[in-house]
Hints:
single chain; 4 helices; alpha+beta; two-stranded antiparallel sheet
Amino acid sequence: MNVTIEENRSHPHLPDLAAADSIERLTPEAVRAHAATGLAALLVDAVDGGASVGFLAPLETTEAAAWWTGVAEEAGEGLRDVWAAHGPDGGLTGVVTLVRSGAANGRHRGEIARLLVHRSARGRGLGHRLLATAEAHAIATGLSLLVLDTQTDSPAERLYRGAGWTAAGTIPDFAADPAGTLRSTTLYYKRLG
């Protein structure tokens, strides 16, 4: 197998190792199979790293696995799509989910939720690749608008702005970070197509 090594845009002298990570859409069964291991580890790593993704620290692996089991159910119902990045060793290095609106008047939109890249795989463009994968699928399946929210002033904001997302506004004290401190959240949107 030939692997193309791309130049890392944030560090031009380093190879873009994320290009070697393969991204695949997970079936509900695959989400269940990875829930207690790789997916739970990604979620625990994100919370341990200070990411405000809906959980307080310390996040137990069993709680993270239970959340992913619920995601598998949503995927089985067609409400959520899941993509995972696998490193050269086969381990999970990142994940992103796309949640479809259940409202009759919102069938044209979706939400990017839980874009997670393991701390050991950050800075190599993997977050951009996962986001682009979910966006391409959204377009291919007829969605014309995506939304997301993220902690204000977090590193994720740079990723979203760089990928063409527009900040719609900020809500103060919207969610607690993993340490329990209330933080502002910025809402983003992106028109597709």
